[in-house]
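Quick illustration, no need to memorize.
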Amino acid sequence: MKLRLVLGDQLSTSLASLSDVGADDLILMCEVKEEATYVKHHKKKIVFVFSAMRHFAQMLRDQCLNVHYVTYDDPRNAASLRGQVEALIQDHDISEIVLTKPGEFRLLADFETWSDHLKVPVELREDDRFLATQAEFAAWAEGRKQLRMEYFYREMRRKYRVMMDGPDPIGGQWNFDADNRKPPSKTLSVPEPFKALDDAVVETVSGLVAREFPDHFGDIHPFHFAVTREGALQALEMFITERLALFGDYQDAMVQGEPWMYHSHIGLYLNCGLLTPLECITRTEAAYHAGLAPLNAVEGFIRQILGWREYVRGIYWLKMPDYKSENALGASRPLPDFFWTGETQMNCVRQCVLETKQNAYAHHIQRLMVLGNFALIAGLAPYEVNEWYMLVYADAYEWVELPNVSGMVLFADGGVLASKPYAASGAYIKKMSNYCDSCSYKVSVKNGPKACPFNYLYWDFIDRNAETLHGNPRMGFMYKTLARMSDEKREAIADDAQRFFREISSK
């Protein structure tokens, strides 16, 4: 009998380790304490993953497959994956363990020891649900001085013949990002997001999470995530029919009270396996050819999946394990309490934190240019920031979270992923949102207690990182501007920054 382990982010019938499963094999799925608590995941994420796992297990049983499922509160729960496998080996005649490679270096390193530890052969299969293998990405990266997503994305477009007109991209250019930066209009009418109906499984798991994880971040209710493949497909279809057409124009826009905007909200389904990337791409491309959405929206969405998602996974496996400890800017400030409570006078930060607490979701500009921008310019410690992003979002797994945060948000990798730090003053947030309209601070004020902290923290960041960043060709204008500032101006910036840091550290 072969033992086939299915993890909580491997909920796909096309999973490599299930490709040749037989009726006599034993499929193991378990809600493992070690995996649920190594970071204190958002309550809603745990409800989502456990509920989706239980539904997936039942779907496998309906196919007459032999599933051994261990719930979190089962007295036989061994609290770790290895312990659970070890227990089954003692009770069954296991000839081989078949695994699909996990999305985290920590787990892979453990799995690679199992054969010696458990005295049973272990087959580790590639996760072929991704569109670029680790070997393919490594081959693309070899010899390149810069690993820029744009060029990788073009190769993926060519490989899969996505949005192509013969050898050329449809529309004559590869990237329409310049058309996807419209600020929010006061007349926008954002559709209601997809809302799955609660079922008995979700209700049961919600009670378990409330009982077993009371000190974890976030709200359980309201809970509207799909927890089945059918529900995930419905969420994808609703995005395509109701949101995709305006996704491109307003993908960077932020509106108070509208956390979902025109985004797809399918990242959590992709990353746990309920959806596959190629079917999302194919369905979106079909919408373009059917005239349901413009080119800038469709290309922008496809780029996130075929380009960015595959690219960050490639970076992760190429650069681990050292990538996790990178801190090119020497940032060390502790994460402020308001990242947990939302209790800050910065309205943009407050809105994003509170919406994250409620939804286990924020869209990419909220993550990058509000919360991430603050973390960057305030010099917050990469380890603490990474841990926060990892635990608060329902779509977060280390392979996707770590490159996005350490590379894109914090520039902690020194420019492996991004060509410059994504730092901005309050003017950017003012342009792309209506948050500033309800803020205690004044975005038009540059210094003093009433000034928007993003204004002086931005220049303080530029100044204190001059030794590291001055030579970056994309930072030249900023350093020329800084050089023209009077000594009094630079002193005022430094004083404001230090006052702000004292205030947040005392709370």
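The domain at 134-191+243-318 is CATH 1.25.40.80 (Serine Threonine Protein Phosphatase 5, Tetratricopeptide repeat).
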